[in-house]
Design a protein that fits this description.
ADP-ribosylglycohydrolase fold, mainly alpha
Length: 369
């Protein structure tokens, strides 16, 4: 079941939660409510007339283009490398260059057309682990960790994987492993990549099977432990997700409930907070993302993952218009979601598509300003 509304809802929804949370990411809860009132931040904090996205959405977009470059190479050359260890790693290295070099990059071969989007060269508090790991090549493996970080930088960028493979002839465990491997490129602790496998599976179930968020989470809590039976930290992750599910059924204030789950700086807490918010407000995108950003923690990441879950579940049409207006790079995000949904239309001996080739073969595409 490949639904464009869900694809766009997931990627745009993630960007909405990211942009809302980015304005308050490093503020304690008391400062948020003092500055914005008793309900906290409820509207975008505009800068230069736009609601700015952070590195969370930037890297999510690079994940999506990396997947499409990999498939396109396989379709046009008859051979391809590993999605995570080749194409996502290459794409993330391009993102790293947007954070460390000025625009425009030299005229040379790139691995993502996103390097031609000048706004993506803005540094929006990129994670130190992502930067340091990519400075070393970003070649961490599940069995050869690059570090022992369990920060949420590996989790917040993997949503396109679950979407993209929602109707592929890939077994779910293979898709989940791609999600884990994508996170492990930069985050080597089990709790750096196991939550990424969980989120990948959840979104696969929502987008591909029409599961509710709750049903998708419960399915992931059975599937991912079976995929990683030797994981030493799986019980801790499952316990935190069970707590998130339980809290979502209780009447505690969101701030208090989220406080029991953590602050979101590490991946298992980010996922648990997002699960709590998406379950508590399963029918309201706006209420869910507002709950996810109004706490004293990693508000842009918890907002982004909540937005991805609710956007995939409810679709783009459930996102209020005022949260779409002024969203930075909204048209680029929609374009990437459309391409992810469409998938590669060309083959080695099949029809040609000049626009697709400029994006995912030549990497020369430049979106109109």
């Amino acid at each position: 079941m490949r639904d464009l509304d869900r694809f766009q809802g997931c990627l745009v929804g993630g960007a909405v939660g990211d942009a809302l949370g980015y304005a308050v990411e490093f503020l304690p809860a008391s400062a948020i409510f003092q500055a914005y009132g008793e309900n906290g931040i409820t509207a975008y904090e505009l800068r230069h007339g736009v609601a700015e996205i952070s590195d969370d959405t930037q890297m999510t977009l690079f994940t999506a283009t990396g997947l499409l470059v990999g498939t396109t190479r396989g379709m046009t050359r008859g051979i391809m490398g590993d999605y995570a260890e080749c194409y996502l790693a290459y794409s993330y290295r391009d993102w790293y260059r947007t954070q460390t070099e000025p625009y425009p990059l030299p005229e040379e071969f790139h691995h993502s057309w996103l390097v031609h989007v000048p706004e993506l060269f803005h540094r929006r508090a990129p994670g130190n682990t992502c930067l340091s790991a990519l400075a070393q090549g970003g070649n961490g493996r599940l069995d050869q960790p690059i570090n022992q970080s369990k920060g949420c930088g590996g989790l917040m960028r993997v949503a396109p994987i679950g979407l993209y493979f929602c109707d592929k002839k890939y077994a779910p465990e293979r898709v989940d492993r791609i999600g884990a491997k994508a996170a492990a490129l930069t985050h080597g602790h089990e709790l750096g990549y196991l939550p990424a496998a969980m989120l990948t599976h959840i979104l696969l179930r929502i987008a591909g099977y029409g599961d509710s968020v709750l049903a998708a989470v419960q399915d992931a809590m059975g599937a991912v432990p079976a995929l990683f039976p030797e994981a030493r930290h799986m019980d801790a992750l499952l316990a935190l997700l069970q707590k998130a599910i339980r809290l979502s059924t209780e009447s505690a204030r969101d701030l208090d409930a989220i406080g029991q789950l953590g602050e979101g700086w590490v991946a298992e807490e980010t996922l648990a907070i997002a699960v709590y918010c998406a379950l508590k407000y399963a029918d309201s995108f706006e209420r869910g993302v507002l709950a996810a950003v109004n706490h004293g923690g990693d508000s842009d990441s918890t907002g982004a993952v909540t937005g991805q879950l609710l956007g995939a579940s409810l679709g783009l049409g459930a996102i209020p218009r005022h949260l779409l207006d002024r969203l930075e790079l909204r048209d680029v995000i929609l374009t990437v979601a459309e391409d992810l949904h469409r998938d590669c239309p060309i083959a080695e001996y099949g029809p040609r598509d000049a626009l697709w080739e400029s994006k995912y073969v030549e990497m020369t595409y430049r979106p109109k300003a």
